[in-house]
Amino acid sequence: MKRDFDAAAYLEKHWTKEDQHLASKEGWDIFAAHGSWEIQKNDCIEVEGAKLLESDEQAWVIVMMGETLTHDKARNFIRDANPIEWRAMLKFTGRRKSGNG
User: Fold this and answer.
1) By percentage, how much of the chain surpasses pLDDT 90?
2) Cα 96 to chain center, whole Å?
3) Of 97, 94, 51, which Cα lies nearest the Cα of 78?
4) 53, 42 in Cβ contact below 8 A?
């Protein structure tokens, strides 16, 4: 994690209720897990009509292939907050994204 990157402050400022709602509807969200931040499937679906994903990797594909501002925010966040997860997501999805778009 970058020294000057405050993940919790970033989420509080940039990850809106609308972002969380869209992510939940698609079956994923950003979670603190194992001492770091991760994109994971959402096991606690509280949004009507939300998808229930089978794996975290399905969540990665949705985030990496998504074209909304919410997907951009999630990619940028994970790239800075958890570079190990970011590299795993890139490798799994075959993407070569810098984080924007």
Assistant:
1) 65
2) 16
3) 97
4) yes
